[in-house]
Amino acid sequence: MKNKKMKNLQPGIHSILLFIASFSMATSVQSEILNVAVASNFAYTLKILSVDFEKQTGHQLRISSASTGKLYTQIQHGAPFDVFLAADEKRPDLLVSENKAEQSSAYVYAKGQLVLISNITPAAVCQSVLILPALQRLSIANPKTAPYGAAAKQVLEKLSLWPQLQPRLVMGENIAQALQFVSTKNAQAGFVAKSMLRMGKEIDYACTWDVPSGMYSPIRQKMVVLSKAKDKAAAQAFKQYMQSEKARKIIKSLGYDVM
């Protein structure tokens, strides 16, 4: 009798095991790895977002960060990226006009803020560091390739300090390197993304100046899905996720404005 019951149970167990196996296979087929190119200023924030995105969708992000201009050039030369998160609108719009990115995926995911940090303790406000003799090196990101560097140049031009400070400039390849120059004391001050002061790392500085937004062109950071990835389920899921209330809340908490 006992053996008969066991025989009757076997088909049911068999079915359950088949179901589990098929479910596991379906999950692995549906889960994808998405190659994301991201501007250096947003790399830390994207790592935080990627944890929540994977939890919600099962898809994983493979993140590559550099200056916006450098990433754009890499895409032009066939780099295997699926999504591009720039620090400006110009490069994503160019990719759309060149039929290398999907217009329908274009989305301003964040608005950046520029801040001056210095390891000099000024007698007055932090802005006054820019005219002190103690300022021997001022770091900015390369204005030609990094939108935050272009913004820093606009601020210095507005203050009529660009010509006299040019000999003292040290230019980072991207905004992360501009911050590194200050944190390692290779520069006494630097213009960086405000969000980078919330990366959870100890950054040694004596003062900061939140640069008024009217002193530089808005840093509207746009993302696009590249045309070759338009049919990827993970790319569409990521596009939707970045517009979600959860993602917007995380982005705002890490030092950005959201549209």
List the helices and strands and how they pair.
Blueprint: H1 2-30, E1 33-39, H2 43-57, E2 60-66, H3 68-76, E3 83-85, H4 90-97, E4 107-112, E5 114-118, E6 138-141, H5 147-158, H6 162-165, E7 169-172, H7 175-183, E8 189-193, E9 207-210, E10 219-225, H8 233-242, H9 245-253
Parallel strand pairs: 1-2, 1-3, 6-7, 6-8
Antiparallel strand pairs: 3-10, 4-10, 5-8, 5-9
Shape: elongated
Mean pLDDT: 90
Number of strands: 10
Level-2 CATH architecture of the largest domain: 3-Layer(aba) Sandwich
Strand content: 15-25%
| Continuous helix count | 9
Low-pLDDT segments, ≥5 res:
1-9, 13-29
CATH uppermost class of the largest domain: Alpha Beta
Q: What fold name stands as the CATH topology of the largest domain?
A: D-Maltodextrin-Binding Protein, domain 2
Order of helices and strands: HEHEHEHEEEHHEHEEEHH
Terminal CA distance: 70 Å
CATH fourth-tier homologous superfamily of the largest domain: Periplasmic binding protein-like II
Short description:
With 259 residues, the protein is α/β, with parallel strands linked by helices. The chain has 9 helices and 10 strands. Helix content is 41%, strand content 20%.
Descriptive report:
With 259 residues, the protein is α/β, with parallel strands linked by helices. The chain has 2 domains: 31-111 and 220-253, 3-Layer(aba) Sandwich (D-Maltodextrin-Binding Protein, domain 2); 114-210, Periplasmic binding protein-like II (D-Maltodextrin-Binding Protein, domain 2). 41% of the residues lie in helices and 20% in strands. The protein is built from 9 helices and 10 strands. The chain has helices at 2-30, 43-57, 68-76, 90-97, 147-158, 162-165, 175-183, 233-242, 245-253, and strands spanning 33-39, 60-66, 83-85, 107-112, 114-118, 138-141, 169-172, 189-193, 207-210, 219-225. Helix 2 (43-57) links the parallel strand 1 (33-39) and strand 2. The longest helix has 29 residues, at 2-30. Mean pLDDT is 90; it is low at 1-9 and 13-29.
